[in-house]
Amino acid sequence: MSATRRQILARGGAATAGIVFAGAVPELFAGTATARTMGRTGYGPLVTDPDGLLDLPKGFRYKVLSREGDPLRSGEGRVPSNHDGMAAFAGRHGRVHLVRNHENRVGAEVPVPVIDGITYDPMGKGGCTALELDGRDNVLGERVAIAGTAVNCAGGPTPWGTWLTCEETEDRAGTNGYTKDHGFIFEVDGADPRRSGAVPLTAMGRFQHEAIAIDPATGIVYETEDAFEKPFGLFYRFLPEKPAGGLGSLRAGGALEAMRVPGVPDLSSVREIGAVFDRIEWVPVPDPLARETPIRFQDFGPRGITHAQKLEGCYWGDGVVYFVSSFAHSAEGSAGDHYGQVWKYEPRRRRLTLVIVFGPDTDIQLPGESPDNICLAPSGGLMVCEDGGGAQYVFGLTRKGEVYPMARNANAVDPDAAEPEWGEFAGVTFSPDAATMYVNCYKPGTTFAVRGPWH
C-alpha cells in the first residue's frame, strides 16, 4: 500500500483500520479480537532472529527468496523496489510460480526493467516479477513478468491460473513523463510472461484500481476503487464478452457497471452490522476510459451512484463476493467514521449485507495499525499483513476471532529505533500445497518463504 494511505491514516488518528477480507468465513469476526488474546493461541511467542531479519514462533524457519537491488536471476537487471500484492500458482512437477507486484511510482529507487515484448509504457516504473520455485522453495528462476506499468498495488488471481495486476493511479499520458494513459488492469502469466504480454484491459475501466474477484460460474469480474479524496471510489462489475475465460479472454471487452444502493449515496453512513439492502442496481459507466472525467465524477443520472472511501480488498467465495472499505473519516468528506467495513454481495439475490464494522466506537479491534493484505491460513483462519508505522507484524486470526503474532520485522525488539529496518508486510499467500507461507516486506523489498509446523 502506498505511503499516501499511511499519511491519511495518521492524519485521521486511526488506531486500526479495516481488514482486507479475503475468505468466505464471516464467523471469524464473531468475537472481539484484541491484544489480550495474543499469546494464548497460535504458535507461541515470537523468537528474536539472530540475523535481524524476521522473528517467527519456535519451530518455524524462513528463507529469503529475493531482495530489492539484487541481480534478477534472468540477467534482466535488478530486483525492483516496493514489493506488494502477490499470489502463488501451481506449476508442473510440483513447482510454484510466484507473481509479485511492484508498487513503483516515478522516482522509485529500483524500477522494473524495461523488457521488449512485455513493456506497456517505457516511462512506467512499476510492474510484476515472477519467481519459479521447486518443492523446497529453492529459486529456479526469477524474471520480469510485465513492465512499464505504474503503482501496481493489488489485483487478484483468475480461475484459469493467471494474475490480474491493478494500477492504483489514473495519470494520463504527459503526466510524470508517461507516454500512455495509466489506470488499467493487465493480465500476467507467471509461467510464461510473453504469452500475456503487456495489454491493458481497457474495457475494465481506467481508475485507481485496487483489487478484483471473479465469479467462476459467470466470469463476472468485481473491482474495487481505492480513492480517499471525495468523491470517493465506486464498486464495479465487469461483464465480459467471453465469460468462458482463459488467457486473453478479457481482451474481447465487455460492459462496465457501477453499484448503486438505493437510498445510500455513501456506504460509510451504514453502521448496523447485518444491515441488508435488497434490489441492488448496476448502472452502466458512461465513459469507462475516463477520457475527460474520472469515473467517480461522471454523471450517473438524477439518482446518483454509491460511493465509499478507500475500497480495497475483494474476494470471491461461497457464491458471494466480499469487499472492504478500509476506513472512512467524516473530516475528509465521508458520511460517517469507521476503521473498516466488510461487505458481502450476493449476485443471485442482488443483496448487499454489512458483515462487520471496525471502530471507532465499536469493540472489534486488532492490535497494531491498519491491517491490509490478507489470505486464508492452512487452519482455515486468516493471515493479516500490518501496514502502518513502527514495528510491523503478520498477525493470524483464528476462527474464534483470536489474534496471534506470526511474524515481526527485526526492529520490533528495539523500541528506541528511529525507523524500522523493514517496512510494512504485503502480499501474504500460501503455496498450493499449503506447506509454505510467502510474504513480502514492502521496503526494502524482500520476499520470504516461511515453513514450520502449520496446523
Give a written overview of the molecule:
This protein has 455 residues and is mostly beta strands. The chain has one domain: TolB, C-terminal domain (Neuraminidase). Helices cover 3% and strands 35% of the residues. The chain has two helices and 27 strands. β8 (152-157) and β9 form a beta hairpin. The two termini are 29 Å apart. Residues 1-39 and 362-369 have low confidence and may be disordered.
Give the secondary structure arrangement, pairings included.
Elements: H1 3-12, E1 46-47, E2 54-57, E3 61-67, E4 83-90, E5 96-102, E6 126-133, E7 139-149, E8 152-157, E9 163-167, E10 185-188, H2 193-196, E11 209-214, E12 221-225, E13 235-240, E14 254-260, E15 276-277, E16 281-284, E17 311-317, E18 320-325, E19 340-346, E20 351-358, E21 371-376, E22 382-386, E23 393-397, E24 403-409, E25 425-430, E26 437-441, E27 446-451
Antiparallel strand pairs: 1-2, 2-24, 3-27, 4-5, 5-6, 6-7, 8-9, 9-10, 11-12, 12-13, 13-14, 14-16, 15-20, 17-18, 18-19, 19-20, 21-22, 22-23, 23-24, 25-26, 26-27
What is the alpha-carbon Rg in Å? Answer: 20 Å
| Helicity level | under 10%
Compute the separation of the termini in Å.
Answer: 29 Å
Second CATH tier, the architecture: 6 Propeller
The structural class is mainly beta
Quick structural summary:
This protein is mostly beta strands and 455 residues long. The chain has two helices and 27 strands. It has helices spanning 3-12, 193-196, and strands at residues 46-47, 54-57, 61-67, 83-90, 96-102, 126-133, 139-149, 152-157, 163-167, 185-188, 209-214, 221-225, 235-240, 254-260, 276-277, 281-284, 311-317, 320-325, 340-346, 351-358, 371-376, 382-386, 393-397, 403-409, 425-430, 437-441, 446-451.
